[in-house]
Amino acid sequence: MGTEQSIERTTASQITAKKASAKIVCLTAYDYPSALVCDAAGVDLVLVGDSLGNVVHGEATTLRVTMDDMLYHTRIVDRALKRAMLVGDMPFLSFSLGETEAVRNAGKFVACGAQGVKLEWQPGIERVVKAIADAGIPVMGHLGLTPQAIHRIGGYKVQGRDAAQAELMLREAGRIERAGAFAIVLELVPAELARRVTEAVKIPTIGIGAGPHTDGQILVFHDMLGLVPGKKLKHVKRYLDGFEAMAKAVGEYAREVREGGFPGSEHGFS
Ligand code: KIV
């Protein structure tokens, strides 16, 4: 566990303070090389997201991701980060069975090197946020599309389009802030509503599919690097066609092995 490293890392209070001064750059990472890339590129906050269920495990939802999965990946990412803040995503049902259980599980993330945890919204979430924050563990809220509630929501769709939903989101953002969260993720929220939430709270908002007015942005590592082929999500900008690039390189290796081009004499030992 990288306790010495974490002293040098960006802290939750530094992330909160950036609301007034700079856009906050966040990205997910799940393993050693992806976390090394985030740190080297100057990302402020790395989230070990339960989206690993989708992009690492190949599942259709995040619902089968367990605490053990999340702790395993958090421990690995911890070894790579020197300056970015490390936040662990609390998986489905790990914070829904009462405050005591939630604090115990949040503590397990800290024991693996996380400096904070993220919780998706559910009714009464402010009590859980407060219990974890009071235990000394920084908490990020998560409003808008909350994939752990996919069966209630009924699909991966934009949230807060009608007035009642929008008012609820504004109210819940205030509650999460007052409960002691240091930041709030807004996922798949209309840009204008994201702007209203951002102006209504003193803690930073981190958007994903929430337009340009949030205090920071987060994307899923594999999505922005095009590592998983398939339908392109509207809110994602692909900075690389990683799948194509890797498949091309692996294809070249396969061809050279078959044709005798690899290994060359420079790759062997006399
Ligand atoms: O699990 C995840 O990667 C997330 C981000 C998309 C915010 O929750």
UniProtKB/TrEMBL annotation:
Pfam families tied to this protein: Pantoate_transf
Origin superkingdom: Bacteria
Manner of cofactor binding, per the entry note: Binds 1 Mg(2+) ion per subunit.
Sequence positions that bind Mg(2+): D50, D89, E120
Reactions this protein catalyses: (6R)-5,10-methylene-5,6,7,8-tetrahydrofolate + 3-methyl-2-oxobutanoate + H2O = 2-dehydropantoate + (6S)-5,6,7,8-tetrahydrofolate
Annotated residues for binding of 3-methyl-2-oxobutanoate: D50, S51, D89, K118
Active site per database record: E187 (proton acceptor)
Keyword Cell inner membrane part of the UniProt annotation: no
Protein name per its UniProtKB record: 3-methyl-2-oxobutanoate hydroxymethyltransferase
Organism this protein belongs to: Candidatus Coatesbacteria bacterium RBG_13_66_14
